[in-house]
Amino acid sequence: TNVIELEGVVKRYQSADTPALGPVDLVVAEGEAVAITGPSGSGKSTLLNLVAGLDRPTEGRVSVGGLRIDGLGERGLARFRRERIGMVFQFFNLLDDLTVADNILLPAQLAGTPRAAAAARAAELMAVLGIAEHARAYPGRLSGGERQRVAVARALVNRPALLLADEPTGALDTASGHEVRELLLDLHRSGQTVVLVTHDLALARSCAERTVSLVDGNALDHSDNRDERDER
Ligand code: ADP
Ligand code: ADP
């Protein structure tokens, strides 16, 4: 089964004569990890926003996790994002007034998961990601690498079909960046479907078996990273 299917997808912003994206066809199978790269302005955010259900295409079909989302209204998209997508951002986007545990629990609460089940899931993720000792701390006390681990736990709490990561190592020092790369690779190995938007070639090579390169809104190159990755 495919987690992402884009068919003839075009995104045109008002007043622009050339599309910001497309037409693009893209399929990501369950369990795959795909990196999306390209220079500034090439359409990476536009593509990510369409897949995340943050925006709708001008033309074409977008299916994610088996759900056709290009025709959904605002409420349907909000529900889709809550239930099927986990997102990780460059600057973590954690809520500084909530503890680590409460940040991770929040999406489960918004999805209506029973309290005990949500707490068990959060505890499991904090243990796996090595942040259990920080459960009652506030994000401001943690290092960048630790904060990104919290963000990954929050992204996974509802068991999303797809983990989307937008420059997840972009704000981290070398050591923390390495830590987060290893974490994403572990998640991929455990079967999580991952799409990364990144300039970090080390991240693309270590974690993704395919790289989709965007140039002027067109997906030009679907190179195979597996050989390089397997040499590590
Ligand atoms: P990237 O993420 O690769 O930097 P974007 O997807 O942000 O690229 O941008 C692709 C193109 O679409 C650029 O030419 C950009 O100026 C344009 N664009 C992006 N967002 C908007 C918007 N909200 N309104 C108008 N044009 C936009
Ligand atoms: P609205 O016009 O109120 O925004 P949508 O067209 O987005 O509604 O969605 C219509 C209905 O489809 C929703 O009220 C909901 O019952 C169902 N729906 C939307 N998204 C999902 C989803 N991710 N999973 C299951 N059902 C959904």
Automatic annotation (TrEMBL):
GO MF term (any one): ATP binding
Name of one Pfam family that matches: ABC_tran
Name the UniProt key words of this record, in alphabetical order.
ATP-binding, Nucleotide-binding, Transport
Provide the ABC transporter domain boundaries.
Answer: 4-232
Name of protein: ABC transporter ATP-binding protein
Source species: Streptacidiphilus cavernicola
